[in-house]
Amino acid sequence: MDYFVSIEDTKYHKWQIELLAESLKAHDLDKNLIVAVAKKDGVSLNLPNSKLTYHDNIGKKLKCLPINKPYGLIKAIKENVIKFPFVIIDPDMVMISPVEESDSISAQYVWYMEYDQLVKYGFNIKDWLGISKEDWLPIGCIYQFPETPVSLFEEIYAYCDHIVSKKKTFTPTKAYWLLEMVAFVAAMIESDIEIKHNYEIPLDGRLKGEKAEINTNFIHYCNGIIGHFDKRNYGFKGIQAEVFPLLADPYHKILTIPHDYQRLNFMKSVVRRVKKQALHSKLQWL
Q: Cα separation of 20 and 95, whole Å?
């Protein structure tokens, strides 16, 4: 089964996607990783076994990056780069175990996609989309699609575009990244598509916690462990690598987090494999 992810060719996404690919490699699935790359900085991506499909950065043009995901996905489907069934994931994830294939559309429950939470973020779901709280589906981040008409994904893109036109009525700084997830839900409701089970795909969004459990498909490290590691410091708002090379290395930072959580330790093991592979590649050129 293929796994689809959307990124920009930036330093910010480079280390995340290479970490994700390494975690899939442990299951011989890195060749099933389909990466839709929105052109921006031209950063080279070290993904020898994965399929890369480049496209115009429509998100940059519209000043709303989340719209790149449905745009890149539609392109990948129409060009036969990706095959059904497939799973849509985010770049800031590490695979623990593969997703079990389903004959129905399934998605991950996400607490911040609850209707009332979205209203707090400024999404006027009722007025913008005509969807009531009773009909809403609090899902996002991970979706699995069996054979599905491409028209559904075109509908998702259309909803993204529609919400972008409404964004002047709210402040998207903290929540604009939810836009494509809102569009996914709206399109599925509009198409009267049944989600098999909102909890079908287990996801652990934390790196820390008292319960040492890793019985999930992915670790979604999001912004990491506050006070110790924040992904936004590495290539986004950025620590300058030229001035602070170690501080600007996300892998070094992850490995030096002074905690012993099972999920964190698993992520560290993937980081070590990435670093080992990078060292091996350098030695081959000597």
A: 7
Report the predicted TM-score, pTM, of the whole model to 2 decimal places.
0.90
> Distances from the Cα of 252 to the Cαs of 127, 246, 255, in angstroms?
47, 7, 5
Cβ–Cβ < 8 Å for 146, 97: no
The per-residue pLDDT for range 217-270, each reduced to its tens digit, is 888 888 777 778 888 888 865 544 443 444 578 999 999 988 888 888 899 999
107 to 137, 167, 196, 233, 242: CA distances (angstroms):
10, 26, 8, 29, 41
pLDDT > 90 fraction of the chain, expressed in percent and rounded: 56
Q: Do 49 and 2 form a contact (C-beta atoms < 8 A)?
A: no
Looking at residues 69-74, what average pLDDT do you find?
97
pLDDT for the residue numbered 220: 87
Burial 61-92 (b: 16+ CB within 10 A, else e): ebebbbbbbbbbbbbbbeeebbeebbbbbbbb
> How far is 212 from 156, CA to CA, in rounded Å?
37
Whole-number mean pLDDT of the chain? 85
Identify residue 232 by its one-letter amino acid code: R
* 47 in Cβ contact with 17 (< 8 Å): yes
